[in-house]
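To: structure desk
From: M.T.
Subject: fold request, one chain
Message: Could you run this one when you get a chance? Sequence is below, nothing fancy, just the single chain.
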Amino acid sequence: MKVAVFGPDRRVGVVHENTVVDINAAYAKYLAETTDTARPLVEAAAAVPAQLNAFIEEGARALEGARAALEYLTDQAQDARGVTGEQLRFALDEVKLHAPVEGASRILCALANFADHMQSAAENSQRADTEATLQRLLAGGPKFFIKDHRAVSASGDPLRYPARTERLDYEAEIAVVIGRAGRDIKGDDFASHVWGYTLFNDWSIRDNVAFGPDFAYSKNFDSSATVGPWIVVNEGQDLQDIPVECRVNGELRQSGNTSSMVHAFAALGEHLSRDTTLLPGDLIASGTPKGTAVDSTRQEADGSLPGTLFLKPGDVVEVSSALIGTIRNEVVKPTD
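Reply: Done. Structure tokens follow.
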């Protein structure tokens, strides 16, 4: 099931055959037309909520209700109008899909989590201290940073080129979405806390990056976390076998798979949940494979990076997976 957030009211929808179905309203219709319930709208609000995090928290009941409503609407219903006559099904190209992240959900990002990415960066560095830093990042347990949830953007949103950089980079990633709250989660139990997975572009500033107190500054700016286009839920996919690619202006730059993560999602979940409760709707991003501009560019002796492969206004970046879909964004001028 592909669960999206759509429209001006940011309602939960299920993507089906190039349409998105308002699944809360569709479930109310299902109840009104197939049961003797006196208050279908009230029951639907409780069982199949219209807002994302409430829908996630409702767990199996919401997914089962969504599945029943979709089957009824597709195979049995006489029309595609809701209890109050509202439209239930919308063409994907007619509605705005928002990033499937709600409210204060945390975006927790793995750092230095693909060996080929880090090795390529080390090989392209002419500074011994840079290579030593990269090797330290690979050593030991998981490393992570936080993206501001208010910096989230959706597929189709323009990416305003940050005025403070001359080296803007892309990072194609997979993110898992937490479905069941947990603290001190054991790695072998982490999968039971995962609700689904989605695409993630970790836009990054690469000018004079230092892995210290200011590192988060290079990772956070308006629209710097593109998520979507939807969350794939409950399809039995091995989280450590999800492909991901990145294209810039149609040119393939990255092609990887979560099977190559240094620390698997289970290890990340165990690490991040120590003394901290992971909550429904939180995201954990995988880290990125080889092929970013920074790991593909030969560093000058003074530590500077030639700008050829870095993004510029007008570039179109697509992050995709055969198991999910595609998120696409155009980089625009800082003044746009």
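Reply (cont.): The chain has a mean pLDDT of 93. Let me know if you need anything else for the meeting.
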